[in-house]
Amino acid sequence: ARLYRVRDWGAGYFDVSDKGEVTVGVEFDSERQQISLMDVVAGIRQRGLRMPMLLRIENLLDAQLVRLNETFRAAIAQRGYQGRYQGVFPIKVNQQRQVIEEIARFGERYGHGLEAGSKAELVVALSNLPAHDGLIICNGYKDREFIDLGLRARKLGYRCVFVIETPTELPIILERSRELGVRPIIGMRAKLATTVGGHWNKTSGDRSIFGLSTHQMIDIVDALKAHDMLDCLQLLHCHLGSQIPNIRDIRSAVMEACHFYVNLVREGAAMGFLDFGGGLAVDYLGSRSNHTQSMNYTVAEYCADIVEVIMETLEPHGIAHPTIVTESGRPTVAYYSLLLFNIFDVTRFEPTPLPAADELSEEEPLIRNLFETLQQLKADRVQQCYNNTVFYRDELRELFKRGRISLRSRALAENLVLQIFRRIADLLDNLGDETPPELRDLREQLADIYYGNLSVFQSLPDHWAIDQVFPVMPIHRLDEKPSRDAIIADITCDSDGRIDSFIDAHGTCKTLPLHPIDPEKEDYFVGVFLVGAYQETLGDLHNLFGDTDVASVRINADGSFDITRETEGDSIADILRYVQYNPKDLLERFRDTAEQAVRRGTITVAERREIVDCFAAGLRGYSYYES
Ligand code: PLP
User: Fold this and answer.
1) What is the CATH number of the domain that holds 546?
2) Which atom of ligand 1 is least distant from the CA of 280?
3) Do 416 and 488 fall into the same domain?
4) What pLDDT, on the 0 to 100 scale, is given for residue 206?
5) What is the pLDDT of residue 538?
6) How many CB atoms lie within 10 A of CB 248?
7) In a shared domain, residues 388 and 290
8) Is residue 46 scored above 80 in pLDDT?
9) What DSSP character marks residue 295?
10) Burial 326-348 (b: 16+ CB within 10 A, else e)
């Protein structure tokens, strides 16, 4: 557990059992119940689901909703805040039906609403939330159709708030609400001057593409005044970006937003809601730091700071405490999903035994030089030996290119080089800070490659696109010290298809300790954790690897678990349809090709049948490696 820092990033949900298996657990009336992921894997495989697979632990979604709502409630009660907290889940963070249905079902007790940033997301929100008072924050650019649907939903009892992102939306809202006879609830998205750190900071500052300038806000207030509709202006919205690592940035943004709020009340707007958007981070590294993939604060600190800053800023102006809204998506769903995959092959960069020195007498002198370098290798000469080795190796490669040495000689030379590098790496282990800079990543260059049955592009797009580090670790054999250092290659034919940044005690590192395995003979399962936010729909079909199988699990109060939902991933035919092929046509065409071969006499009719059956089975199959 310590090696992979599970207790640091696991937020109290993940741990390692005495049997050396990763467990996931939650509290039931202050009694913790945990289950082993290996038991879940066994249950899932009995039901015919395949690797790779996405596993959703429903209790973690519920627990995160409780954590957010109860922590705000506690901060509000402790400080005597007069308003309340009402969260909304931004659908874009995970739009999948299972996710939204669970949030709507479990979140109802807190009046947790949804945030919609497009017409499609508004449809999802309306079909999941209860009509009576269901809070829907409508962000994004809204056309007439979007606005009409939101206004009509008001008639059913939904509280649809149109957050104005650009001044052009207002005339449409005014015209349509007059036409339909519905008074809209209007919000304004402020462009704050406060900027924040982290990956997603382009949403903050003057050059943010979202939100209204102060001048535009005043124009909107004036227009609403002119239409006698200032009572409709009820919400101020701001969003500084996702995953804000530094609480001090959040504090100062909240303070700026509060002053916007004060001024809008002074202008005569009804107000009542102050919406801070997303930004509450997830500690992917478990380092509790100001690193982009971590956070230097707790959820309790986040809630307390927001409540405190609002009170301090509004009280001198005698303004009533608003309902606090946040649009936390990432922390709500990140823990809930994990990706499991098997390792189907391993490449090791290990030298094979060398011939005796006298067997080299016929070889190219450069090969004999390599042999001598190996014999002379000592801790105080590592850099020199490295330089010589690289020089001889490159010269030998040149000779091969010109046909002057054989493939066997080249193989011998490369084996010697590997032998030297391995020994240098062992010597470097004792050198610590004295390691010459050029040799610092030698261990990484020698790391094994474990081939994982997954597509990084489909399942971990943020790892590929923005170097997001997710916790990765084997889910079993953790009572055994892992003796190999490895990177993980995925199943796509793309050199970017790899996982090569991991969590260690100092932050991040480039290799992962794994157990030695023989993939032909044994199963080895690896988990990628905290992948519930953004990964599923941002993923793509690179190399035509499709959606994985998905299973939802619920942990019961007696410590058992149920597999509550199973969704089969894409078949090859499904994927081909996405890219405009018709699998039936493909099968027909292939059948014709086989028929022609029968006519030419190259295959028999029985062989034709076998070949066509094989093609048809391929279309029905899973796109991933099937053992
Ligand atoms: N609200 C808005 C307007 C957003 O654009 C986003 C995402 O960037 C969110 C909420 C979700 O934020 P987070 O990922 O920090 O939970």
Assistant:
1) 2.40.37.10
2) 15
3) no
4) 63
5) 81
6) 14
7) no
8) yes
9) -
10) bbbbbbbbbbbbbbbbbbbebee
Span 100-135, pLDDT tens digits: 999 999 999 999 999 999 999 999 999 999 998 899
For 535, the token pair is 């990964």
Look up the pTM and report it. 0.94
ipTM above 0.85, yes or no: yes
* Cα(267) to centroid(ligand 1), Å: 28
Range of the domain at 394: 366-430
Q: Are 234 and 322 in contact (CB under 8 A)?
A: no
The confidence score (pLDDT) of residue 80 equals 98
Helix (H) or strand (E) holding 561: strand 561-567
- pLDDT for 223 equals 97
Q: How far is the CA of 278 from the centre of ligand 1 (A)?
A: 4
Kindly state if the Cβ of 140 falls inside 6 Å of ligand 1: no
Q: Is 187 in the pocket of ligand 1 (CB under 6 A)?
A: no
Which tens digit of pLDDT belongs to each residue from 149-191?
Answer: 999 999 999 999 999 999 999 999 999 999 999 999 999 999 9
Burial tier of 601 (Cβ tally within 10 Å: 0-12, 13-18, 19+): exposed
Number of domains comprising the chain = 4
> Is 294 exposed, middle or buried (CB count within 10 Å of its CB: 0-12, 13-18, 19+)?
buried
The mean per-residue pLDDT over the stretch 73-93 comes to: 98
559 close to 59: Cβ distance less than 8 angstroms: no
Q: At what angle do helices 214-226 and 169-180 cross, to 10 degrees?
A: 20
Cα of 325 from ligand 1 centre, angstroms: 12
CATH number at residue 306: 3.20.20.10
Nearest residue (by CA) to ligand 1, atom 6, is 278
* CATH number, domain containing residue 419: 1.20.58.930
CA 579 / ligand 1 centre spacing (Å): 30
Q: Is the pLDDT score of 208 beyond 80?
A: no
| pLDDT confidence of residue 361 | 83
For residue 107 and ligand 1, the question of a CB distance below 6 A is answered with no
The C-alpha atoms of residue 132 and residue 111 are separated, in whole angstroms, by 10
Tell whether ligand 1 has an atom less than 6 A from the beta carbon of residue 211: no
The Cβ of residue 124 has, within 10 Å, a number of other Cβ atoms equal to 19
Q: Which of 138, 160, 303, 493 is catalytic?
A: 493
Residue 67 lies in a domain: no
Q: Residue 71's pLDDT is what?
A: 98
Annotation marks residue 493 as catalytic: yes
Choosing from 164, 292, 327, 537 the residue with most ligand 1 atoms within 8 A of its CB, the one to mutate for a pocket test is 327
328 CA closest ligand 1 atom index: 16
pLDDT one-digit tens code per residue, 307-363: 999 999 999 999 999 999 999 999 999 999 999 999 999 999 999 998 888 888 888
Q: Quick one: CA dihedral 239, 241, 243, 245, positive or negative?
A: negative
Locate the ligand 1 atom nearest the alpha carbon of residue 243 and give its number.
15
Examine residue 22 and state whether it is found in any structural domain, yes or no: no
Chain-centre distance for alpha carbon 342 = 19
How far is the centre of ligand 1, averaged over its atoms, from the C-alpha of 326 (Å)?
Answer: 9
How far does residue 201's CA lie from ligand 1's centre (Å)?
A: 11
Q: Give the number of the atom of ligand 1 that is nearest the alpha carbon of residue 281.
A: 15
Q: Is the pLDDT of residue 207 over 60?
A: no
Residues in the chain: 627
Shortest-distance atom of ligand 1 to CA 533: 14
